[in-house]
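Table 4 source record.
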Amino acid sequence: MEQKSAFESFELEVNSEIKGFLKETSKWAYFLSILGFVGIGLMVLGGLWLSFYTGMNQFGGDTAYGLGYSTGVGLVYVLLALIYFFPLLYLFKFAKNMKMALSSENNDNFKSAFLNLKSHYKFIGIFTIAIIGLYILILFGAVLGASFF
């Protein structure tokens, strides 16, 4: 006879107090995701403005340095906006599914909400690790470069 561990037989109780916490959390997640989407829109507009308007007007329109620099910075803004779109989408889906799960007491929506929350944090975690790795590489390159000069 196979014996179950204490964790396997443990069942979570989602009482009214916890439902209230989850409802408030979903409202804040919804607010932050909408605010994030607005920020992404502004980043894309700013990136496009940097890419086209600044490069063309500030440096006379045909200066290779001006066009290349502003275009590069503008594309970085657009790229960062694209990268940050996905965790915001996961956060938005969490909020939407949690709201539906709590109003209709639907377990599928409840499960989907936490799946999206997990994906949000997983994406942010992997992105954070990548950025820390990039910082280490930049620091290593700076120290290595400084030793040659």
